[in-house]
Amino acid sequence: MTTITNDGLPIPQRYGAIFTIALGVTVAVLDGAIANVALPTIAKDLNASPAASIWIVNAYQLAITISLLSLASLGEIFGYRRIYQIGLLVFGGTSLACALSDSLLTLTVARILQGFGAAAIMSVNVALVRIIYPQKFLGRGMGVNSLIVAVSAAAGPTVAAGVLSLASWPWLFAINVPIAILAFFMGIKYLPMNPNKNQGQRFDFASSLMNALTFGLLISVISGYAQGVNHSLILAEVVGLVVIGWFFIRRQLSRPSPLLPVDLLRIPIFSLSLCTSMCSFAGQMLALVSLPFFLQNTLGLDEVSTGLVLTPWPLATMVMAPISGRLVERYHAGILGGIGLAIFAFGLFSLALLPDHPSNLNIIWRMIICGAGFGLFQSPNNHTIVSSAPRHRSGGASGLLGTARLLGQSTGAALVALMFNLFPMHGTHASLILAGIVAIVGVCFSLSRMAQKPREQNNIVSS
Asked: What's the N-to-C CA distance of the chain in angstroms?
């Protein structure tokens, strides 16, 4: 077993580990967005309404959200690599089940199971990055990881367009199977084990159950309200959320290694960075879920053309994310994130102001602005989240980072359904306006971090 120090892995193994993580994270994150472009087609093929078809996205996000922290805790106990490998196996098998689904119900169930596999991958990927890279280059490592996550999330339309130009929608899921198998066998060779696993820590099953119920009820309340579910049922869910959530948090406050890392949430810059992350991903999901309906149903574009029009977004993110990963080594993440999200908000508002019959060029330059702003924000923000946590709590930080992203995405997808229900003729326009407002809230959270000093030096000493 390779000896791991604060200098990270040996360079050859480091590159192999980076590529392995890139494969797993790409398919896990991409699958959260890849169905967006195909939603109208899938809904028509499975005889589902547009609002009901949103569950194809929500089911996946919900499964990840309720299990992410539990799997991160298991990673700290049994090893990040082991949880990552199990996630790849589950994800590959359930991707095949998605491809073979023949109804909205069976596809939704398969997506839930697929989400658990994705959660295992995403719960520990950032913790693995912290082991792989030397401390002094962690910003660059987070830049690469943020690039993978952001581009994968935003590239769903592009990838979907390429697949749908050659095959039917089940192949959107079937292509994951060989990639997951390749990543699994590469992980055996390249991924490191935790240098110091929490051997004395035992998995808290009660907290895991309360965590699932708390976050599950939270997402159910948001999605139910958005889709017009009976108000009595929503009220009952709110009561259950408050009661279970109260007992859940009380239990976490008394635990030495809590499943919900309340010890990390007490760090101001950590909590503010999580809030910034949730706002950014909610805004991104509001745009990327709603835009395909406008481009296809209003402008008459097919799936392939829709993907091509949206492609400049991930391309701009791809260019900006590594640059911002280096900038965070010189400038405070609060100001970088604030500028990035302000640019992002400008792009979203400009999309909302599109004329009735815009040219492709008119759409593309707005996509570039959105992608560049998002890329400037994400790497510094993730670097701050990871580096402000003690090294032995990297698993908890990784789990919370993923949870914040998924809560933002789930909320964004649910809000799209709400906008479509409230404004049937202008759902996309309303979604983009709301996305811009949410991004502005993220700017406020990011700039408020300027008063907080990063804790990297303290963590280097304590680790």
From this structure: 21
